[in-house]
Amino acid sequence: MSEERLVDLLFWVFAVGSVVTGYRVFRTDSMVRAAFYLLASFAAVGGILVLLGAEFLGMVLILMMAGEMLVMAIVMVMFMMNPAGLNPMWMVHQHRIAVAAGVVAFLAIASLGFLVDFPDQPNARPELATEQLGIELLGDSMLVFQTAGVALLSTMLGVVVLASRRGRYGIADEGSEEPPLQPDEMDMLGEEAAP
Amino acid sequence: MTIEALLLVAGALFGVGVYGALSQQSFVMLMMGLELMINGAILALVALWALAAAGNPQGQMLAVVFMTVMAVEMALGFALITNVYRVRRADITEKLRRLRG
Amino acid sequence: MRTHASPELALLAVGFTMVVGTYLVAMLDRVIGGWVAARPHPWREIVAGPARSAALLILQQRMTTERTDTPSWMLAPALFAALAATALALVPLGPDLVVADPETGFVVFSAAIAFVMIAVFLHGWSPNSALPLHGAYRYAAQALSFQIPFLLAMLATALPAESLSIVEIVAAQESVWNVIRQPLGLPLYLVVGLAVSFWGPLNLPDGADLAGGTSAEDSGIARLLWKGARAAMLVAIAAMGAAGFLGGWWGPWLPGIVWMLMKTVALLVVLIAAGHLLARLRIERFVVVAWVLLIPLALVNIFVSGAFLL
Which of A26, A51, A86 is the last residue of a domain? Predict the structure, then answer.
């Protein structure tokens, strides 16, 4: 098989794979499998990015998503009532509106490809993509890079503060509750405190 | 790998993401819908970069910004989910009723 | 991407390396274990021992628990073996002897190591049993903490090469090995290599305190495949350390491939000896070490090597 046919075949395999696993995320009963279906969808998109010539972006996407989906699986087990899918599950609201919105979004974006006359300027030197990204990152877009770095740092700090066990109103495991909005609902003498 | 095919796939991913984000009751599943939307957006961006923008490095830069935004959104989303559960004991959207009009 | 071998030859080479590497790790384990305990095993047992225990595992009865997640349970050792094969395929044995040399080989290697987290989590989650799940969660904490020092330690080797391709990284060590101009790199790499391949002192997911951890419910061929995949991943980490830090195929007199094998075996001996000489660490304390000590050390390593290059 010639290289171009192989690339096309791989592209369609990845494309169909990513959409199918993306849909399976919301239809499976097992929550851990949902997280890993999403990982499969991202890995397929990462594969398409590599086929397009953005090798670094594709591999970094796959690398990031491995860690993120592991954390997602753990959060699923924490918060979902049916993590192993031992019971069937169907927790949706406004289902028909959601389907309609999804279809409209798909048609809007897919029709862009057919209706808009995009300029035909393929990437001439895909092997230089990583080098160009590096030069761009530390050259012309240095401010963007630094802003992203500061944003990530502040996110890390904010997340640790938000999710910390020792909150402002006491330790989380001991039921830290914020004071109620009306002062007369407040328990000033500690009568309702747990023994 | 024409632009039409790539935007078709990106649109499908985005559509599934919109369906998930609007229909799921659980916070974590809702976030998965958002992740799928960003997935579709990244694919569309890199497709246009590779086929219509002659490999302009600023396109890759924008993709890096997208991935940063995705990481930030996931991290803050999980922290807020944890916090909402601790304060209101709510793990699905239906249980958050206090701001309901 | 610049690949250097036809697919059939590549498959053969990687498969052969995995089998030989796994056998070598098992033999070295017996040799070093016997030496540390001052009761050396007889040579016949060292050479035939791994084959005998492999045969025993293949003939063992398959036992299963109830309500398992069977596809994930089948997937986990296969995924781990595939990741070890991916990592081994990236290691160059010579300037023209590499199975796959993508332009961003370093990122592919890191992605393979990151997916080990997924394989171990699936392996612990699927049997629907308490102790494997404990092991999976411990590995999640351990791997997420050590991922960053791992990436940073290996990243410093890419600086003198000005490229992310592994072949270029080795080629840039022609004048001086990375272990000499980046002294912090190799010890850091070995420590975090032990952590991400959960061997020896950092064997939290499969440890004896959890009665075998994620492997507690494994039996038969799945058990053999998991142990083999772990050993193959250890070989991959040792080989990548030899390529990135010890100068790969560079060396006087002997041909490059012999040097590469000797350096890999040397790092394997160090890693396996660490398994026998150090007790298993408490992960609650050790992740603090990862975040507070190892990440700043790795960053210092990068700054210093970058400063030397300017």
Answer: A86
Query: ipTM surpassing 0.85, yes or no?
Result: yes
Concatenated DSSP letters of C193-248: HHHHTT-GGG--TT-GGGTTGGGTT--THHHHHHHHHHHHHHHHHHHHHHHHTS-T
Tens place of pLDDT per residue across chain A (195 aa): 688 899 999 999 999 999 999 999 998 888 889 999 999 999 999 999 999 989 999 999 999 999 999 999 999 888 887 777 777 777 788 889 999 999 999 999 999 888 988 888 888 888 888 888 989 888 888 999 999 999 999 999 999 888 887 766 677 667 666 667 776 666 666 666 555
Interface of chain A toward chain C, CB-CB under 8 angstroms: 30, 32-33, 36, 39, 55-56, 59-60, 62-63, 66-67, 69-71, 73-74, 84, 86, 127, 130
Size of interface A-C (CB pairs under 8 A): 57
**CATH 1.10.287.3510 holds for B3-94:** yes
Yes or no, beta carbons of B39 and A42 under 8 Å apart? yes
For chain B, the domains span 3-94
Domain assignment of residue A146, given as a range: 129-174
**CB nearest B22 (choices: A98, A122, A126):** A98
Kindly state whether A177 is in contact with chain B, defined as any CB-CB distance less than 8 angstroms: yes
Q: Is residue A167 part of a domain?
A: yes
Instruction: Put residue C269 in one of left, alpha, beta given phi > 0 → left and psi -120 to 50 → alpha.
Output: alpha
A179, part of any domain: no
- Entry pTM: 0.90
Which chain A residues touch B67 with a CB distance below 8 Å?
57, 60-61, 64
| Secondary structure letter of residue C93 according to DSSP | S
Q: Is residue A180 part of a domain?
A: no
Judgement on whether residues A71 and A2 belong to the same structural domain of the protein: yes
Q: Which residues contact C169 (CB under 8 A, 6 or more apart)?
A: C106, C157, C158, C161, C163, C243, C244
